[in-house]
Specification:
The longest helix is centred in the middle third of the chain and has 67 residues, at 163-229. It is elongated, with a radius of gyration of 38 Å. It is 59% helix and 10% strand. It is built from 11 helices and 4 strands.
């Protein structure tokens, strides 16, 4: 347990010095810190991420480990997506709230930092007093005047034990933590808007496929209805064709509803109305985003703003321990003023009108019911909590990167199977139609094959969108392209 020194001995020697000597001594020793030396906790994660599978046709897909993750303007190269991302960063209300909190934290840091410096102000005072004869000591009426002009030093605590500097450091780290949290929210917003955009493109492409299927089936129904009227086919065959039409109509209406709602959701995230034009085969053979490699966990620690925020919070908790320890020691404060005073206004600057006062004081804590010790215990407990939170944040970051890599690996394999499945279902539908026309099978087989083909088309588009979303997840998990030079500079500390 932390034990303060023999305070009465310290006070005894301080009181022997003159006020000027006390001030010079404390100013020469001010700035020492009683906070424990900060050490970054060892990351409780494996040394490397799972190795991603290398694409066969893109040998340059893996980035060198010393190369920074590309910024979002480079990574998300789609012009339409870039526009709505810029709009979201400018108009999203939650991001504005986060920015306001950063400004508030910076102001709090400035307030705390100002305690390091004396509060000096200039004051002027004048008074004129009339005393009647029956209240005057001389038995005569007295009219007196008093004028004073001075520079005043308010109560200023000399930071002998580093208490104020520890509080300043804690406020600075809180500000930096809030700033990193804003960056983390910015990256999360970029990912959320991008995924919303990808969902819209998925629904748009699925709707186009459903509309093409509907047009084809409506044409088939027209032909079958004419054949039924001519007595070539039965009413059962006609109703089965009509079932296919209704199925495509239902899917088309459902996708139109989802697409419209997705556009509303996207407009809410962006903070302004969003209008997007149709793009043919958006999830085609070409990659929507460029491939990236996550590198090593050390790179993750340098790029993830939520990890930076957790570390700044840990530094703040460590600094608060120094402030709690300093509370056990005497606090030394200075007050005073220097100026000129006179009974006449024109005598303020005359010779011999100088006036001054210097009043140092020492406050020695003796008994406070264990409050200082409890504050120290609280600071240590919060530091332990901050350590655990930092380690948890690092573990979560490692998990997110690993899951993203795993998702990409399995989604690529799933996508290959789905592409083969669609080819099979298209072939099956064609053969079923030929068999029906030759009279070898009832139309029910054609009906089942058409349903399977439409489902395979829709599922393939969804899988392609999921693969693109996994690329967004990986990009944000490794820091979202945030580098140190992109961050706003921290306020300069005292003495720098």
């Amino acid at each position: 347990m932390f034990s303060p020194p023999k305070q009465n001995l310290i006070t005894k020697h301080l009181l022997r010095l003159s006020p000027l000597g006390v001030g010079l001594l404390l100013l020469s020793l001010a700035g020492c810190s009683m906070a424990p030396e900060y050490q970054r906790p060892e990351a409780p994660i494996p040394s490397k991420f799972p190795a991603p599978e290398q694409p066969a046709k893109t040998p340059d897909a893996t980035m060198p480990e010393d190369k920074a993750t590309p910024d979002w303007q480079t990574y998300f190269s789609d012009p339409a997506l870039q526009k709505i991302l810029n709009d979201a960063l400018a108009n999203n209300r939650d991001l504005r709230i986060a920015a306001a909190r950063v400004r508030a934290s910076r102001a709090i840091y400035g307030i705390q930092r100002s305690d390091l410096f004396p509060d000096i102000n200039v004051g002027a005072q004048g008074s004129r007093t009339h005393t009647p004869a029956d209240l005057s000591y001389t038995g005569r009426e007295v009219t007196s005047s008093s004028y004073q002009l001075s520079a005043n030093l308010s109560i200023w605590e000399l930071d002998f034990w580093g208490r104020i500097r520890s509080l300043e450091e804690a406020a600075l780290q809180d500000y930096l933590s809030q700033e990193s949290s804003q960056q983390a929210f910015k990256i999360a917003l970029i990912a959320q808007v991008t995924n919303g955009y990808l969902n819209y493109r998925e629904l748009d492409q699925r709707l186009v496929l459903a509309q093409k299927t509907l047009s084809s089936r409506e044409e088939s129904y027209r032909i079958f209805k004419r054949r039924f009227e001519m007595g070539v086919i039965s009413e059962l065959d006609l109703t089965q064709v009509e079932t296919l039409v209704k199925q495509a109509q239902t899917l088309t209406i459902e996708l139109e509803q989802l697409k419209e709602n997705q556009l509303y959701d996207l407009s809410y995230l962006v903070g302004s109305p969003v209008q997007l034009e149709h793009v043919d085969n958006y999830f085609g053979e070409q990659a929507v985003f460029q491939p990236i490699s996550p590198g090593l966990p050390s790179e993750l620690l340098n790029n993830r703003p939520d990890i930076l925020a957790a570390e700044h919070s840990l530094r703040s908790a460590t600094a608060n321990i120094g402030a709690a320890r300093a509370a056990f020691f005497p606090s030394i404060t200075l007050t005073g003023y220097a100026g000129t005073a006179s009974a006449e206004l024109d005598g303020l600057f005359a010779s011999g009108s100088g006036a001054w006062s210097f009043a140092p004081s020492i406050n020695l804590p003796i008994f406070n019911g264990g409050r200082n010790q409890s504050n120290l215990d609280l600071s240590k407990a919060r530091q332990n909590e901050a350590v655990s939170n930092y380690e948890k944040t690092v573990q979560n970051a490692f998990k997110e990167v690993s899951v993203s890599l795993s998702n990409q690996k399995w989604l690529k394999k799933q996508l290959k199977v789905l592409e083969d499945t669609l080819s099979i279902q298209q072939r099956r539908a064609h053969l079923a139609e030929l068999r029906y026309k030759s009279g070898a099978t009832p139309f029910l087989e054609v009906l089942d094959a058409e349903r399977a083909r439409l489902s395979a088309e829709q599922t393939l588009v969804t899988a392609r969108r999921a693969l693109s979303s996994s690329q967004v997840e990986l990009y944000t998990a490794i820091g979202g392209g945030l580098t140190q030079k992109q961050k706003s500079p921290a306020p300069q500390k005292t003495g720098e």
